[in-house]
Amino acid sequence: MQIDAMKTLTGITGRTGQELAWQENALCAQTGPEFFFPAPGSSTREAKQLCGACEGRRACLEYALDNDERFGVWGGLSEKERERLRRGGSAGTGAGPAASGTA
Predict the structure, then answer these.
(1) Residues 45, 73: contact at Cβ < 8 Å?
(2) Half-sphere exposure of 77 (CA within 13 A, CB side)
(3) Which residue from 58, 63, 73, 84 puts its CA 20 to 30 A from 29's CA?
(4) Cβ(8)–Cβ(17) below 8 Å
(5) Cα(32)–Cα(1) distance, rounded to whole angstroms?
(6) Which string of DSSP letters, residue by residue, matches 52-68?
(7) Exposed/middle/buried for 7, CB within 10 Å: 0-12, 13-18, 19+?
(8) DSSP E strands, the chain
(9) 3-class DSSP assignment, residue 74
(10) What is the pLDDT of residues 39-52, one digit of tens each?
């Protein structure tokens, strides 16, 4: 029996395949999780650099905020930066479109 990963993910998250399509071409899908889920106190610089070059960055950040992702780098923002964004403050990264909310 073959499992359709996108259908399974859609069933779990309630999002359509089109809404999650950014994950298929995301740069993080081509690298290891160690960049995006570094050990506590480790640098997130490499992950943020990859995110900065990724066309799915905005969708990734929206996904993380919508799903209250509390760990790792999502859409170019660390846990602390996403928490600041949730509270209505600036993420403080100056990292481009996803951080500013513009495309």
Answers:
(1) no
(2) 32
(3) 84
(4) no
(5) 28
(6) HT-TTHHHHHHHHHHTT
(7) exposed
(8) none
(9) strand
(10) 888 999 999 999 99
Place of tokens 């990724």: 54
| pLDDT tens digits, one per residue of 14-65 | 555 566 788 888 998 888 888 899 988 899 999 999 999 999 999 999 999 9
Find the helix or strand (DSSP H, E) in which 9 lies: helix 5-13
**Using a CB cutoff of 8 Å and minimum separation of 24, what contacts does 49-55 make?**
51/27, 51/75, 51/76, 51/95, 51/98, 52/76, 52/95, 52/96, 53/27, 54/26, 54/27, 54/28, 55/22, 55/25
